[in-house]
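Lecture notes, unit on binding sites. The following record was shown on slide 14. It pairs a sequence with 3-methyl-2-oxobutanoic acid.
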Amino acid sequence: MSVSREVKRITTHVLQEMKQKGEKIAMLTAYDYSLAKIVDASGIDIILVGDSASNVMAGHETTLPITLDQMIYHASSVVRAVKKALVVVDLPFGSYQGNSKIALESTIRIMKESGAHAVKLEGGIEIEDSIKRILSAGVPVMGHLGLTPQSIYKFGTYTVRAKEEAEAQKLLADAQLLEQLGCFAVVLEKIPAALTQKVSAQLTMPTIGIGAGPHADGQVLVLHDMLGITTSFQPRFLRRYLNLFDAIKGATENYIQDVKSGDFPSNEEAY
Ligand code: KIV
């Protein structure tokens, strides 16, 4: 008789229980099969196929250019690698704002063509209809408030959001609305730590912070930033766990040298 070694998958219910128990949630981005496999094997709770792929994978200045087809390509590569984590996919700019029917169509394409488990949308009351329609189709929704990079041309800068009372009040109201609508979690990006604490205390759904201080129920970073593959992005909130840029560059330089000198391949490396 074979012994079942099935891995217990992270679901939205597991995340809810984690918040109730005060257990922090760890989330990272991934965009391809190979790195998603490593991140999943590490025991991460949530993998976000973020539209930050537009920056770190495609080299665009903003997240705006990435298309729905490109997000589906990244998401399906990640899903093929993942055994445990909940896979959440960003709806890209232009695929959900202003028209809930288009939002649902975009979501259905992501769910059917990639096999992902949930979607993430940026915004509050402005996208209420889109969120309602997606949820009514049975797809879990993660919200995203604070610095929402798809609105960068409205903000004009990547500085901390919701420092003023009016914007903080709107963020709190939006977070409560997302919870009432049935979202399972919300990302809070680049807002004051005290506001994160207040929002997290008032919600039963988990908050996931990025540049939002220690009081969120979980944290998220862009994988290529925390691994030190990207080097020009240096915000205060970013903790780098590796310097892969230098490590990969060093290995590549050694390889070039070995090829040029005739050291590689050796007789043992030949057939
Ligand atoms: O696209 C992304 O990587 C994100 C995270 C920064 C939360 O939305």
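Take-home: Strands lie at 25-29, 46-49, 86-90, 118-120, 141-146, 185-189, 207-210, 218-221.
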